[in-house]
Amino acid sequence: MWTYMLRRTLQGMLVLLLVSLVIFALVRSLPGDAILLQLDQAAALSKADLELARQELGIDRPFWQQYKTWMTGVLHGDLGKSLTSRKPVSQELGKRVALTFHLALMALLVALLIAIPIGIASAVWQDTVTDYIGRMFAILGLSFPDFWMATVAITFMAIWWHWMPPMGFEPVWIEPLKCVEQLCIPAVIIGARLSAVLMRMTRSALLEVLREDYIRTARAKGLRERAIIIKHGLKNACIPVVTLIGQQFSVLLGGAVIVEVIFLLPGVGSLTLDAVMLRDYTVVQGAVMFFATVMVGMNLLVDVSYAWFDPRIRYR
Amino acid sequence: MYSEDIQPQTAAAAAAPRRQRTGVWTMARRKPLGAISAVILCGLIATAALAPVIAPYDPYRFNLNERGLPIRLHAPDARFLFGTDTHGRDVLSRIIYGTRVSLVVGFLSVAIGTLGGTVIGLLSGYWEGMVDHGLQRCVDTLMAFPGVVLALAVLSVFGQSLANVILVIGLVIAPGASRVVRGSVLSVKQNAYIDAARAAGASSWRLMVWHILPNVLAPILIIASVWLGNAIVIEAALSFLGFGTPPPTPTWGGMLSGEGRRSLETAPYLALFPGLAISIVVLAFNMFGDAVRDLLDPRLRTR
């Protein structure tokens, strides 16, 4: 188990290193730079002044030197300074990571609350009206793009109910009511799509498990149907569902990017978009490293959880 | 000695003979929803091909009133069935022409993505060891980026154009596709006929292309049909964020963004119709993908 974890962690670090190289190269190939886009009066500045400004930010040095400086900083927990706000990137990110995590976790909660019961019902009453309604719901959920639902939701809330989600984010442990009020609609929108994917997986995984011999044994020894489905069926159907949650986490964060922009939520997603537009290299790098770390961590967590769900699985 | 090597037949291998018997009518009878979605998709392809004939107006023209001013935000009526946008262009005609971008991007990006994924998956699954490790870490790297952020960064670097949008969506699809193909290759490789072919002196190249590839085709087709809907949503999302096919080319995502979005309170139909168009196409692709998966995947067939 521990050797397996160590190997997977090392692999994860290698992936993060590759991500850092790719994003570092990618942002530096964006046309224009922070100085040109930031200063309206850039045209009025002389070439020498522009060079001086670039020198101050350190974006005039050769690629590898810049990378080395940045990477040394990252390894010491310093993500550099934003090229636009001049504040430390970790400070900029810190404020917004909380919101994005709130949003992602709430969306995941919404998705699970919808997907698991419907998935179970759909599998238990296979090929009945319940099953058809459940599957129809899932396929509909997949077909409405989140940015469209978000746009429509915002417009109609404003027109019909004259209600807008409150501005300015507060974490749930400080102002729980405001936080939920602010994030519930975006979370439902992101969660709806995820729930459709998860429901389909829950249904097919449970169907597969319910045909296993040990389920027949459980029935034969006279266990109640509910106990069979929940204790014997569901726990064993969890592996593919959990794998899917791990894979879909990137969809969750990606969906968060667009929904954050539409709902004007100050999360990591909207920060990243703004930073790409403003060529704020350090912020883009920091944000992408955040996303990548979450993804790598999620996948590791998912793999480790297999052993808990299925004690037959042992890692070597 | 071979008997021990024979694994339960994979989904792919078992599906091959079955496929020949699934004619159009058999499919229509067994999968009515799949058949309906196939009809919708044929209709969409016809719409895209015949756009100039079907569209009531030129999608780029600013329709003018008697005084020579653009008919801005005209509510839907008999003359403009879906109304006009902020520039006085006919929304229905723009949606009809928008079908072209969505379908072209959908089909081409999925083709590129699954082709790339298949090549990587084949190489990675066939040669385990260093090649596999190297390729899989590259796939991990691509998968560690949130799709939207990767797409935006790449599009900002290489510029916005239809071709780049297609390539970028292909890039987003390829890693996931390669994983599926790799998994199937690993299981197909266990079959005795692969050993037999190798013993008969087949080269690695020949084994991969003639013996393994045909047997992993079913899962590839399944992911491809499932991804078609996703690709169209990604295209629409990119256009919505202003990174898709540049204006004035009509795209469904583009029609939902910018001025269309700002004038939503006065003209809600501006968001309604392009959004519905996206949903109908994606719904049709999803139902079609489900039907294809059920027909090709024997494990799901009885469900």
Automatic annotation (TrEMBL), chain A:
A GO term, aspect molecular function: dipeptide transmembrane transporter activity
Gene3D superfamilies: MetI-like (1.10.3720.10)
Nucleotide-binding is among the record's keywords: no
Domain ABC transmembrane type-1: 97-302
Membrane topology: Multi-pass membrane protein
Keywords: Cell membrane, Membrane, Transmembrane, Transmembrane helix, Transport
CDD domains referenced in this protein's UniProt entry, alphabetically: TM_PBP2 (cd06261)
InterPro entries given in the database record: BPD_transp_1_N, MetI-like, MetI-like_sf
Compartmental location: Cell membrane
Origin superkingdom: Bacteria
Predominant place of localization: membrane
GO cellular component, one term: plasma membrane
Keyword Transferase: no
Pfam families in UniProt: BPD_transp_1, BPD_transp_1_N
Coiled-coil annotated spans: none
SUPFAM superfamilies: MetI-like
Membrane spanning residue stretches: 103-125, 137-163, 183-201, 249-268, 288-309
Family as reported in the entry's similarity comment: Belongs to the binding-protein-dependent transport system permease family.
Protein name, entry field: ABC transporter permease
Automatic annotation (TrEMBL), chain B:
Annotated TM spans: 35-57, 103-127, 147-174, 216-243, 269-289
Ranges for domain ABC transmembrane type-1: 99-289
Main location: membrane
Gene3D superfamilies: MetI-like
Pfam families from the UniProt entry: BPD_transp_1 (PF00528), OppC_N (PF12911)
GO BP: any one term: transmembrane transport
Cellular localisation: Cell membrane
One annotated Gene Ontology cellular component of this protein: plasma membrane
Keyword Zinc: no
Keywords: Cell membrane, Membrane, Transmembrane, Transmembrane helix, Transport
Membrane topology classification: Multi-pass membrane protein
UniProt record similarity statement: Belongs to the binding-protein-dependent transport system permease family.
PANTHER family for the chain: D,D-DIPEPTIDE TRANSPORT SYSTEM PERMEASE PROTEIN DDPC-RELATED, OLIGOPEPTIDE TRANSPORT SYSTEM PERMEASE PROTEIN APPC
Identification of the protein by name: ABC transporter permease
Organism annotation: Tectimicrobiota bacterium
